[in-house]
Specification:
Blueprint lengths: L3 E5 L3 H9 L4 E5 L14 H13 L3 E5 L12 H11 L3 E4 L2 H10 L5 E3 L8 H10 L3 E3 L6 H9 L6 E8 L11 H6 L18 E2 L7 E2 L15 E3 L4 H7 L3 E4 L6 H16 L4 H9 L6 E2 L21 E10 L5 E5 L3 E2 L3 E5 L7 E3 L3 E3 L7 E2 L5 E4 L10 E5 L3
Parallel strand pairs: 1-2, 1-11, 2-3, 3-4, 4-5, 5-6, 6-7, 7-11, 10-12
Antiparallel strand pairs: 7-10, 8-9, 13-14, 13-21, 14-20, 15-19, 16-17, 16-21, 18-20
Length: 398
């Protein structure tokens, strides 16, 4: 079986980064019903560009149309789906049966993947979606490996099975939580979740509203609902054995550095190219909460909620844009750096190489000691071989 690594693409830069670091396919949102906030929208022109770029690299691109549609949103769907088909989208991802029906009628030749928002937890549901015409089902995160294997065994082999292997997890069934909508008016199913499950809470007894009880873990309160992040890097082979054909990374709203690091690590894990401990170290270099294996091995063991928020071991310093004729490498700055620092190279071909920065030049040709301004363009000398798309980072303890 050929295994697919599927990475998030919140914008064109992340799309290119995911592909460069080894994704077989990417998923992104367009202008309608895509379950992420506006900053991760692709315009129709942007989608056309993204689809063309992915195909030029021999990769696939799936467009999310997986919000739960309201009546007044159905009329625009046929033309939108037809446009996606004409652009060359490889599939759309849907969760709503009405959207599915509209899409099948408007573009019957366009593959449809059933979103994890549909909460498929049994083989009968998977079979029914397949009978209706779905090419792939993206299983609910709440399933165990044994349950996934049973779904694989009891469904036709041509029905592809996708599952999440890394990223944030919701405290509700995916897409069903109403906490954000109730507390803030921001709808989680419209890509605008305020993440109240991550807030700190205190216990108040109703007859003593001004007295809070000490059930919290820190002075700021207790994150009683905050889920850990899913990380399946050390049991990829078990997911393969269960019948997963597409391994999905969460994170359309995460940074290009996150996309690069996580895609790179899971590419190497799927291909069996690196030690698991080294790959876990890589994953910890990107922004993350404490890790969990989720429900894959049964009921989640009793472990404290993620109380520390996001953490990371490395700082994204710069993106490599190319090499000048005189050998200097052109960088776009993302975080402050200076002469004398030890930087690490992150590339598809390298995990552990580092070098000491000894020369920086600005766009005017003047030597400088510190790069201060976001997205500033500079040139450096580097003893390592760098390529366009590579990333430079700094360990926090350097």
């Amino acid at each position: 079986m050929k295994y697919e690594l599927l990475s998030p693409a919140g914008d064109m830069e992340k799309l290119k980064t995911a592909i460069y670091f080894g994704a077989d396919a990417v998923y992104c949102g367009g202008s309608a019903l895509h379950l992420r906030a506006a900053q991760t929208d692709f315009t129709m022109e942007g989608l056309a560009e993204g689809i063309a770029y992915a195909h030029s690299k021999g990769k696939k691109i799936y467009i999310t149309v997986n919000a739960f549609a309201r009546n007044d949103e159905l009329d625009m769907l046929p033309e939108y789906v037809k446009s996606l088909k004409q652009m060359g989208a490889d599939a759309i991802i849907v969760s709503d049966l009405g959207v599915f029906a509209e899409a099948r009628e408007a573009a019957p030749e366009l593959d449809i993947h059933i979103s994890t928002q549909a909460n498929i937890t049994n083989y009968k549901a998977a079979l029914k979606w397949h009978e209706l015409g779905a090419r792939r089902v993206i299983l609910a995160r709440e399933l165990t490996l044994d349950e996934i294997k049973e779904i694989r065994d009891k469904t036709p082999p041509e029905l592809e099975i996708e599952a999440f292997v890394h990223g944030a997890m919701c405290m509700s069934y995916s897409g069903r939580c109403m906490m954000s909508a109730v507390l803030t008016g921001r709808d989680s199913n419209r890509g605008d979740c305020a993440q109240p499950c991550r807030w700190n809470y205190r216990l108040i007894e109703e007859k003593r509203p001004y007295e809070s009880y000490p059930v919290y873990e820190t002075e700021e309160g207790m994150t009683i609902l905050s889920s850990r992040d899913l990380c399946a890097i050390d049991f990829i082979d078990k997911l393969k054995e269960a019948g997963i054909s597409s391994f999905k990374i969460e994170g359309r709203m995460k940074s290009p550095y996150y996309v690069a690091t996580v895609t790179n690590a899971y590419r190497k894990a799927l291909d069996g190219e690196a030690d698991t401990d080294l790959l876990l170290k890589e994953l910890k270099s990107a922004s993350h909460r404490e890790f969990s294996s989720g429900f894959y091995f049964g009921r989640i063991k009793k472990e404290p909620p993620s109380k520390d928020g996001y953490m990371q071991d490395c700082i994204f310093i710069a993106m490599v844009l190319g090499q000048r004729e005189d050998g200097l490498y052109k960088l776009e700055m993302r975080n402050r750096f200076a002469l004398g620092e030890t930087l690490e190279l992150l590339s598809p071909n390298s995990l552990d190489e580092e070098f000491r920065l000894e020369y920086i030049e600005d766009e005017d040709g003047a030597q400088i000691e510190t790069v201060l301004h976001p997205q500033q363009l500079v040139y450096i000398k580097c003893p390592l071989k760098l390529s366009e798309g590579d990333i430079l980072r700094r360990r926090e303890n350097n």
